[in-house]
Design brief:
The protein is of the alpha/beta class. It contains eight helices and 14 strands.
């Protein structure tokens, strides 16, 4: 087994390699003067089981292209099997045609990965479950819940309610509520533009309870903050937010600091860009979870048991 990483999240890759007890593979990634990406796998991988770690995060175009070029280099170096470890699957928001003349970028990225030479995909908390069906290769779809529920249990909240900030996240919220044996609520939302949302109504009892908003992805923070403000108006006592992928722009930190959210819990699936405000953020590592999945894939063992809490 060989583990390699691109430039998107080397810290996470180091944590994975440390857990597995093997060093990261030697790979050289540079740029030509005009900006094109230059790649060289600097060690022999012929006949090896290779894992390439690269979330498609900011800047997504750069890191996606880097991943594709590395995969092509590995295929041409005669690797026996290439598994793309993509903790955050970028371009996953557009997974269907909800308007005329728009692309389905989640499917496009799937086609690109397979065409480059990926034999297997390991990812976590896809924006929607059906993205797995865009691949004609095996997909191991992990859930960050085993990592995320631990701090909530340690806090020992009573009268807890898990809240989905929009209808699309209802399935994830339901899973968390079952794990924590808590109540469940949902916020009705309508997106007015890529940067703004309108909230309408809360379905469920939140009055006097500790509310935890759960979502797979946050970029601008508009959905979470609007939902938190509505929950506060409906009588929620304290409001927390848990998000797997914190693909946050600078304005999101300012928005969160002004919101009713008491604490923001995220994973290190993508590197957290330097916060520009005093918002309380707790970062949980998913390195051990991904490392165990890689170990089981390599040994042809069950991965589904990793969902057990």
């Amino acid at each position: 087994m060989k583990i390699f990483t691109g430039t998107a999240n080397p810290k996470l890759a180091e944590g994975i390699a440390k857990n597995l007890g093997i060093p990261l593979g030697d790979i050289q990634i540079a740029h030509f003067p005009d900006g094109e990406i230059s790649v060289k796998v600097a060690e022999n991988i012929r006949g090896r089981d290779v894992f390439m770690i690269q979330p498609i995060c900011y800047p997504p175009n750069e890191h996606l292209m880097e991943l594709l070029i590395v995969i092509d280099a590995m295929r041409r170096a005669s690797a026996a099997r290439i598994t793309a470890v993509v903790p955050f699957y970028g371009y996953g928001r557009q997974d269907r045609k909800d308007q005329p003349r728009v692309p389905i970028t989640a499917k496009l990225v799937a086609n690109l990965l397979v065409a480059a030479g990926v034999n297997r995909l390991l990812t976590m908390d896809l924006h929607t479950q059906q993205i797995q069906g865009f691949f004609d290769i095996p997909v191991d779809h992990l859930c960050a819940a085993p990592v995320m529920v631990k701090p909530l249990r340690e806090k020992g909240f009573d009268n807890l309610v898990i809240v989905s900030p929009d209808p699309g996240g209802m399935k994830m919220a339901y899973q968390y509520s079952r794990m924590l044996n808590s109540g469940l609520a949902i916020v009705a939302k309508q997106r007015t533009s890529p940067n703004s949302v309108e909230t309408y109504h809360v379905v469920g009892d939140v009055d006097g309870r500790t509310a935890v908003l759960v979502d797979d992805l946050v970029t601008t923070g508009g959905t979470l903050c609007a939902a938190a403000d509505l929950l506060k108006k409906k009588g929620a006592r304290d409001i927390y937010a848990m998000v797997t992928h914190a693909v946050m722009i600078p304005e999101a930190f300012e928005r969160l600091s002004r919101s009713a959210i008491k604490e923001f819990i995220v994973t290190d699936s993508v590197p957290l860009r330097a916060p520009t405000s005093s918002v309380s953020i707790q970062v949980l590592t998913v390195a051990d979870l991904l490392a165990e999945a890689i170990r089981r894939i390599h040994n042809n063992q069950s991965v589904s048991s990793l969902f057990n809490i």
